[in-house]
């Protein structure tokens, strides 16, 4: 098999790790909180030196933005400037519902409620005005349908009236954010990104329905509602295999089985390319198996599937691994990062599969060293 090459302008990236929440630091002064946040961003920059990536996707911490919008914008602007000095393209997640669900409930209520959206929009305008032309890619909403399913789909009963109202408010928020971004930086690209969990094929229709609303202004799921078609430049695909580490070997066999029923990344891409005439960015991709060789196999196989889609003229312009380091959520360590950390959250070293990823990026191809991983 010949080397598998990628386009010259292909974006190779990684996501920032899950940041610590302020609820653990309420006894600290505002100065100390921001010192810790700046230290965390500085550490992330130092870790990027060992990788060959040319893009970095990160969430804004709305706890910090609510605490002090001016200082937060200055901090993130300095961070972005340092990324650009390293020739790393910043990709900014404005709203990630996976993150907000762990934060203050009133932040989510603000986005959901049309009457309260103004404060959120006011902060976003400060953010984008600070970044100006330094940021070309904004993902305005991430994990929206995952949040909506968690919020409204409890058992068989769904309050469609409240669901429809919330969706309409979210779309209004999205449209207002787009207008702000485009007025400040007309060259910026705006997007939404959604997660396609490999275990949830039966729920794909709802995920596609939300994207249908944004892209086409109509959706089979929300057939009785009228929406205004929104402006969108690309779509983000989050494709994460969140199988249990304790069932690692079983999960591997299931994953690699030719008779598996789970949806595959290439199947998601095919459905996207059939439905939408827009460029795609793989905004998240991760496997929770712990063994490095299995992680390498998962990574290379997905990159190969992306390459085959490119050969079929599908417009995929980048791949972002998730995440830069292992993360701790509710005292549980998820060993999913390019960097491993110890129990005290000290970074140790690059994992072997991260070196595989970095070598593929440097060569801009899957060469003979890694072709053995392709099924």
From TrEMBL:
One of its GO terms (molecular function) is hydrolase activity, hydrolyzing O-glycosyl compounds. This is Glycoside hydrolase family 1. It comes from the Bacteria. Keywords: Hydrolase. SUPFAM superfamilies: (Trans)glycosidases. InterPro entries: GH, Glyco_hydro_1. One of its GO terms (biological process) is carbohydrate metabolic process. It comes from Petrotoga mobilis (strain DSM 10674 / SJ95). It holds the Pfam family Glyco_hydro_1. The lineage of its organism: Bacteria, Thermotogati, Thermotogota, Thermotogae, Petrotogales. Gene3D superfamilies: Glycosidases.
